[in-house]
Write a structure and sequence with these properties.
Blueprint lengths: L2 E2 L11 E8 L15 E7 L5 E3 L2 E2 L1 H8 L3 H4 L1 E2 L5 E2 L5 H7 L1 H10 L4 E5 L5 H6 L4 E6 L2 H6 L6 E4 L12 E7 L8 H11 E12 L4 H6 L12 E2 L2 H10 L2 E7 L10 H17 L15 E8 L2
Parallel strand pairs: 8-9, 8-11, 9-10, 11-12
Antiparallel strand pairs: 1-5, 2-3, 3-4, 4-13, 6-7, 12-15, 14-15
């Protein structure tokens, strides 16, 4: 109950290998929709290499998760600490400065749509440099943004009220890997963009150093991350949906998360313990270079 079996979201194959399992949280401090005792397999398609959850949360379970206001006001981070995302507005807006600067180097102005805009942190970080609006499925998030100066439309992508070729830029910050049909969503983005328009994606990189070392302990895994891309698989998705890859960046250095010496020492120590000493335990990875991808691509036709 609450789960569905799926085929590969890229090639449709139903032949896959289980890499490891992630687990729902029994922590009563978590939002109700996050809680559970189930183990969820992270699998890899044997035909095309795409990594995804299978079985995964069905539509009813996903709806319960994203429509729970506690998702934005009371969650638990990987270290077990309480988080209130809504109360971290200033910090989270500041974190997007690097993404905004990266976007300016690709496209410095234009009409922009932020798909899955959450509480509008990226929109706020954009300032007045773009004619920007947001699309958000979560009703509690939309309610929390009332009074802000953004145009926010409440809808579940790929549904939207816009016409073809309305935008110069479409941004999805940590969103594409949460969508049940990422390929169909990229086709929808293709239609929204003008010829030569840019799609900007922020994605977890399942091919990163720490993802390979830590497996189920990779800190960016989650029950609502339905897909996990690599540089190769996201390039294939983009090309299939009519885009040309422009650039993949790996934000880490210069961010508040960058502690390269400390993190390198931890990774080496954990690798030795888990792979050489064969300690049967799951260790939590630190943030590290390559864990996140910032992807830019342009509409080709």
């Amino acid at each position: 109950m609450g789960f569905e079996q799926v085929a590969c979201g890229f090639c449709g194959s139903q032949v896959y290998t289980t890499l490891f399992e992630i687990h729902e949280s029994p922590d009563e401090r978590q939002p109700l929709a996050w809680r559970g005792t189930s183990s969820i397999p992270v699998v890899q398609c044997r035909r095309c290499g795409l990594v995804f959850l299978n079985p995964r949360y069905d539509d009813e379970r996903l709806s319960a998760l994203y429509q729970d206001p506690q998702m934005f006001t009371g969650t638990i981070d990987p270290e077990g600490r309480r988080r209130n995302i809504a109360a971290e507005r200033q910090i989270r807006v500041a974190r997007f400065k690097d993404d905004v600067d990266a976007l300016k180097r690709i496209r410095s102005h234009g009409r922009l749509l932020d798909v899955g805009c959450g509480l509008g942190f990226f929109l706020e970080a954009l300032g007045d440099k773009y004619e920007a609006s947001g699309l958000e499925w979560s009703h509690p998030a939309v309610e929390m943004m009332k009074g802000l100066s953004f145009t926010i439309i409440e809808e579940r992508f790929p549904r939207h009220p816009f016409g073809k070729s309305e935008f110069d830029i479409v941004a999805l910050n940590n969103v594409l890997d949460h969508l049940p049909d990422p390929l169909g969503s990229l086709y929808a983005i293709h239609e929204l963009l003008k010829l030569g328009g840019v799609v900007m994606l922020s994605l977890v990189n399942i091919d990163s150093v720490v993802a390979r070392v830590y497996g189920a302990g990779f800190r960016l895994l989650g029950v609502n991350h339905l897909y996990y891309f690599t540089p190769l698989t996201i390039k294939r998705f983009l090309e299939k949906s009519g885009f040309r890859l422009l650039k993949i960046e790996y934000p880490y250095f210069g961010t508040e998360f960058a502690k390269p010496l400390e993190h390198t020492k931890k990774i080496l120590a954990d690798w030795w313990a888990m792979r050489v000493s064969r300690k049967k335990e799951t260790r939590l990875s630190p943030p590290f270079y390559g864990s996140m991808m910032r992807v830019f691509a342009t509409r080709m036709n």
